[in-house]
UniProtKB/TrEMBL annotation:
The keyword Magnesium does not apply. Pfam families: Ble-like_N. This is Glyoxalase/bleomycin resistance/extradiol dioxygenase family protein. Gene3D superfamilies: 2,3-Dihydroxybiphenyl 1,2-Dioxygenase, domain 1 (3.10.180.10).
Length: 138
C-alpha cells in the first residue's frame, strides 16, 4: 500500500490578504485558488509545504489565544532551504523589493549560508543553503 507523503500546512494571520498575496507573488510563489476566498488563501511553497494566509478575524476563529504583535514579538521562524547560496540571496532580495525588511545580517558558516526577512505582517522567514558535501561528511 502506497502512503501519501506527509504535508505541512502552516497557518499565519495576516492583516491585508490582498497585500500578502501580492507580496508572495513577487517572490515567485503561486496559490491554490480552490482554497482562496476573502478570508484565506493557500500559498504553495512546494509539493508538500503550504502556508494558509488567514485574515486575522478568521485566524482568531481557530484559537482562543491572542495573536501576538509580530512587530514586537517572535511567534515562529519559518525556515526554507534553497538550492544554492545565490538562491538564498535571490529570494531575500525579492522579498526586500516587495517590501520586506531584513532583521538579521547574512550568516556564513562556510558549509551553511543563510539570510532572512520579515514579511509585511512581521513573520520571520529564514532561507538557508547547506553544502551537500558537508552534510555527507557529517
Amino acid at each position: 500500500m502506497k502512503t501519501m507523503a506527509t504535508q505541512i500546512f502552516v497557518n499565519l494571520p495576516v492583516k491585508d490578504l490582498n497585500k500578502s498575496i501580492e507580496f508572495f507573488k513577487n517572490l515567485g510563489y503561486s496559490f491554490n485558488p480552490q482554497f482562496t476566498d476573502e478570508n484565506a488563501t493557500c500559498l504553495i511553497i512546494s509539493d508538500t509545504i503550504y502556508v494558509m494566509l488567514l485574515v486575522e478575524p478568521f485566524f482568531k476563529s481557530f484559537t482562543k489565544k491572542a495573536i501576538p504583535d509580530t512587530t514586537q514579538n517572535a511567534q515562529v521562524i519559518l525556515a526554507l532551504s534553497a538550492e544554492s547560496r545565490e538562491g538564498v540571496d535571490d529570494l531575500v532580495n525579492k522579498a526586500i523589493a516587495a517590501g520586506a525588511t531584513t532583521p538579521n545580517d547574512k550568516q556564513d558558516q562556510g558549509f551553511m549560508y543563510g539570510w532572512g526577512f520579515q514579511d509585511l505582517d512581521g513573520h520571520l522567514w529564514e532561507v538557508m543553503y547547506m553544502d551537500p558535501s558537508a552534510v555527507q561528511q557529517g
